[in-house]
Amino acid sequence: MPILGRFTRFTLWRRRAIVRAMAILKIARMGHPILMRVADPIADPQAPAIGQLIADMIDTLADASGAGLAAPQVHVPLRLVMFHVPAARASEEDGEAAEGCPFTVLINPEIEALSDDIADDMATDMATNMADGLEACLSLPGLAGIVPRHRQIRYRGLTHIGETIEREAHGFHARVVQHECDHLDGFLYPMRMRDLSTLSFTSELSRMESEEEQEESEP
Ligand code: NI
Questions:
Q1: Active site residue 180
Q2: Which of 30, 97, 144, 204 maximizes the CB count within 10 A of its CB?
Q3: If you measure from the C-alpha of residue 8 to the centroid of ligand 1, how many angstroms do you get, rounded to a whole number?
Q4: Exposed e or buried b for every residue in 118-145, given b needs 16+ CB within 10 A?
Q5: pLDDT band at 219 (very low <50, low <70, confident <90, very high)
Q6: What predicted TM-score, i.e. pTM, was given to this entire model?
Q7: pLDDT tens string 89-133
């Protein structure tokens, strides 16, 4: 999932990257069968091949200025995702108090939607527990669309050293995790959209935005 309008760099990882060869992997685009299949669990998170895959995906994500990346997007059908939410981006989306999320690698992740007990029927669930937000994806370059996601989730998975991570997330942080984990089950964000008329080229969106800003600044 790319960061829209704001480009960030993982300074720490880049510094590391200087002392070893960079490997930028080719990103699969919508239509490639690797993006349509259910990915396989990783038996040994500490296997050297997994460590190499993680390093290469970090380089690839930094190069693409993304917020997250899933292994199937680099043609590897394994259950591994990585993401980060800079605090500035989180507060832009969710208000000043939002904290964001440090750079995280999750192996064999699981997501549980946290919902209010009042939501029994689907319509109520959509109204109270799902939020609409703009998403983009490195596998659909140049496009973005409005996608409903659970406002609040709990997720867990393993780190590259086999430790368990369990967190609760809401807002943009929850959105990024749902988007990345969807890649492991063959879902791209347009398959989650309720209104395909919001699917847009990002260049058109930024043109509209700058026209609106211009109109506002005119006396
Ligand atoms: Ni994506």
A1: yes
A2: 144
A3: 17
A4: eeeeeeebeeebbbebbbbbbbbeebbb
A5: low
A6: 0.85
A7: 888 888 877 888 999 999 999 999 997 554 455 555 666 789 999
**Residue 209 lies inside a defined structural domain of this protein:** yes
In a domain, 55, yes or no: yes
Q: Residue 215 Cα, ligand 1 centroid: separation in angstroms?
A: 33
Tell me the average pLDDT of the chain. 88
Compute, in angstroms, the gap from residue 35 CA to the centroid of ligand 1: 10
Measured in angstroms, how far is the CA atom of residue 142 from the centroid of ligand 1? 12
Site of tokens 């685009």:
29
Q: What is the CATH classification number for the domain harbouring 151?
A: 3.90.45.10
Is residue 18 situated within a structural domain? Answer: yes
* Residue 197, C-beta contacts closer than 8 angstroms, at least 6 positions apart: none
Query: Which listed residue (99, 168, 180, 216) is catalytic?
Result: 180
User: Total structural domains in the chain?
Assistant: 1
Token match 């997501």: residue?
111
DSSP class per residue in 89-139: HHHHHH-TT---EEEEEEEEEEEEE---TT--SHHHHHHHHEEEEEE--TT
User: Is 3 inside any structural domain?
Assistant: no
Name which of 75-84, 92-101, 151-160, 201-210 the model is least confident about: 92-101
Tens of pLDDT, residue by residue over 205-214, are: 999 888 888 8
